[in-house]
Amino acid sequence: MRRAGWAAVCAAVVLAAAGGGVTAALANGTVHDPALQSGPSAPSAQERPAADSADAGFARDMAVHHQQAVEMSFVVRDRTDDEEVRRLAYDIANTQANQRGMMLGWLDLWELPKVSSQPPMAWMGMGGHDGHGSGGDDAPLMPGMATRAELARLGKAEGERAEVLFLQLMTAHHKGGVHMAEGCVDRCRPGVERDLAKGMVEAQESELRLMADLLKARGAKGS
Q1: pTM surpassing 0.85?
Q2: Which whole number is the average pLDDT over 194-216?
Q3: Cβ neighbours of 8 (radius 10 Å)
């Protein structure tokens, strides 16, 4: 994998994490700055979703979910030389960093906070259930997310062991992401966000099939 490609992903991550009054959202290779939108192009109060809506909840929670996928992809990049796994990791990091920027940009455009007093996935009626979001016993923040202990193991693994662990963790992560995206498809308002959620379901289901094949080739199973 060329260094320039990973450098572009790094730039997307930095821009998406900028926060504050200006969040740069990368989409289709173009930087969009929602904070600079004004006049007729800015949504009216009636058009903005409520802070506790599915639209806002999905944008907040999926941005967090995506961030971990990006982090795991960068970790495995440095733990293996396998081109198939590194290519998959690059695709995941690039796609999800850009999508994360878009979702944070929408929250800025809607003038909504990027954090909520509600537990993760409360907009799906799941907040804090089954230990998710509680933080106790190193529980994952949301379904599919890796625990701190699992991330630590990935950071110490090398070669094929790192590949297998990454594929297993990302399989669980994608399954959780698909479930959340389907929640937005069912609950979010018609428009670009729901369309993005539909695209996430299709793309991540395709990557799940690829990861199952890569695990099988290594004599391992998914989560």
Answers
A1: no
A2: 98
A3: 18
